[in-house]
């Protein structure tokens, strides 16, 4: 069996939803509360699962327009309603994926810098990290409104690297979707994808990346500390 490639890095950037945390229960609940308030048919968990990945605005847009028409005014109203409901339940049913806490501790022991890079808005990201006991575990947190563009644009990854004081080539991205893979490729850093996340309905093994992980712990075998 051929040896796996090890990446000489000084930092690891993590996606949040579908990578560190399983947040789908809260997203489904908030989305369906939004749809009910707007008088729209509710969506199945599987549908909403496939809509997650590009932030709240896109999630709401997909919920309202996937098989029906919605005006921009209706979509803006939906975003407002979703935000209100999600703020009330953010973290209620969220769980930390198995292996994540041990992975973070092991990476800290190796002296790696750690960051979260998520398309989730800061108003939801920071309270969620606090509620799940992750506040202070990361050297930087870049949310969906920290810079002008979201993943798959690489700007968020470059911003995170700037906060960490490293170059993009010195970081490894770990995510669950094409958003993460495309952003990492454009930023010039290696990327590993977990196979248990959301990936917007796209089979994760069809996404170009440097390796798939069934547990975040497997990333430790792919790192050679620079």
In terms of topology, how is this protein built?
Layout: E1 7-9, E2 11-14, E3 21-22, H1 24-37, H2 45-51, H3 56-65, H4 72-89, E4 95-96, H5 100-109, E5 113-117, H6 122-131, E6 140-142, H7 155-164, E7 171-175, H8 178-187, E8 191-194, E9 212-213, E10 223-225
Parallel strand pairs: 1-10, 2-5, 2-7, 5-6, 7-8, 8-9
Antiparallel strand pairs: 3-4
Helix pairs in contact: 1-4, 3-4
Describe the structure.
39% of the residues lie in helices and 15% in strands. The chain has 226 residues and is of the alpha/beta class. The protein has a six-stranded parallel β-sheet, sandwiched between helices. The protein has a two-stranded parallel sheet with strand order 1-10. The protein has a two-stranded antiparallel sheet with strand order 3-4. α1 crosses α4 (72-89) and α3 (56-65) crosses α4. The relative contact order is 0.20. The mean pLDDT is 95.
How much strand content do the residues show? 5-15%
The computed structural class is alpha/beta
Strand order, main sheet: write it out.
6-5-2-7-8-9
Look at the structure and name the CATH superfamily of the largest domain.
HAD superfamily/HAD-like
**How many distinct domains?**
2
Count of β-strands: 10
Reading off the top of the CATH hierarchy, the class of the largest domain is best stated as: Alpha Beta
> Would you give the CATH topology of the largest domain?
Rossmann fold
Task: Name the helix and strand elements from N-terminus to C-terminus, one letter apiece.
Answer: EEEHHHHEHEHEHEHEEE
Main sheet summary: 6 strands, parallel
Supply the number of helical segments: 8
* C-alpha termini separation: 25 Å
Rounded to the nearest angstrom, the radius of gyration is 17 Å
The residue-averaged pLDDT reads 95
Query: What shape does the CA trace take?
Result: elongated
Low-confidence stretches: none
Family: Belongs to the HAD-like hydrolase superfamily. CbbY/CbbZ/Gph/YieH family.
Active site: 15
Enzyme class: hydrolase
Protein name: Phosphoglycolate phosphatase
